[in-house]
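Good morning C.,

I know you're traveling, so I'll keep this short. The sequence:
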Amino acid sequence: MFIQTTTLTVSMSLSATVSLGMLYIPKVYVIIFHPEQNVQKRKRSFKAVVQAATVSTSLSQKSNEKQNGAKIEPDRSQ
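The tokens, ready to paste straight into the viewer:
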């Protein structure tokens, strides 16, 4: 019975160690060997993405109007 308990304890400890290693070794590798990659990426909210797309669309429409010389009223039926 003692050998079964010891075997189970060692195998569970080894399993937990391997799991933690797989989680944290890539992070430690980046921190130690590639510190220039250890920066937080800029995150944009969905609202900011929609607003940027709307501004981009309106700017492209204005530039098209200037190139064509005709003024086109936006469709406000939506």
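Safe travels,
E.
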